[in-house]
Structures are given as C-alpha cells and as structure tokens.
Design brief:
With 127 residues, the chain is mainly α. The protein has one domain. It contains four helices and three strands, in the order αααβββα. Strands 1-2-3 form a three-stranded antiparallel sheet. β1 and β2 form a beta hairpin. α1 runs antiparallel to α2 and α2 crosses α3.
C-alpha cells in the first residue's frame, strides 16, 4: 500500500474542515457535499501547479463552497455573533493564506477557525 502523498493529505484535511462546518450548521446535504467534492477536484489541479499553496486549501475550499451555496441557496455560514439586524454571512480571512478563520466584518471579530464553527456556535468542537 502506497503512503498518502502530502498533497492528498492537504486536500483531505481541507475537505474534512469544510464538511465539519457544514455539519455544524446542519447543511451537509448530499448536493452540498457534492459542492465540496467539486471544489476539491478543482483545487487539486491548482495545488499541483503551486505545491506551496497547500496550506491555503482549507480557506479556498471554504470560499468555493460558500460561493456555490450563495448561487443556489443563499448566504452561508450565517453570523452567530450579531443578534440584531439583517442576517449576514461570515467571510474567510485571509482570502489567500494559511490558518483561515471565519470572520464577522460587521462586529469586527474572528468567530472560528475554518473547521470549528460547531464550537463557536455552542456545538461540539470538531475533531
């Protein structure tokens, strides 16, 4: 059995982190999971061209899924911090960098690392 390459490890880790956030918001339906898979397929090519970008995969996959959900269903993930006003989505920061977080620009706070929305919303931390 061949060992899993660092590229595949990074892709699987990004997938797992985004799926954890989707599950925390109870939106990990089959069609949404397919959006994650589509992003991973597209990002595989991207990271093959730029291997140093592997650390950026969780944020990029999260943004890809967020964009796909916006086109089909609406904003995701909704901000759990702001209790009043219009519901708004969190953003991923940095847009292209390691250690991505979900951020509420309205309140000016980091809400959770990508993959840890469940803990931020009062759920169980993702493993």
């Amino acid at each position: 059995m061949d060992p899993v390459s660092p590229l595949e490890q990074a892709l699987h880790a990004a997938r797992a982190r985004v799926l954890a956030d989707l599950a925390a918001d109870e939106v990990a339906q089959p069609d949404v999971v397919s959006m994650v898979e589509n992003s991973v397929v597209e990002r595989r090519w991207w990271v093959e061209q730029w291997p140093d970008g592997a650390a950026y995969l969780p944020g990029l996959v999260a943004q890809d899924v967020q964009d796909a959900l916006l086109e089909r269903y609406g904003r995701w993930p909704l901000c759990p911090v702001c209790g009043s006003g219009d519901p708004h989505a969190l953003d991923v920061e940095p847009e292209l960098g390691p250690d991505p977080h979900w951020v509420c620009h309205k309140a000016g706070v980091r809400v959770a690392a990508v993959g840890s929305l469940g803990a931020a919303a009062g759920g169980t931390p993702s493993s």
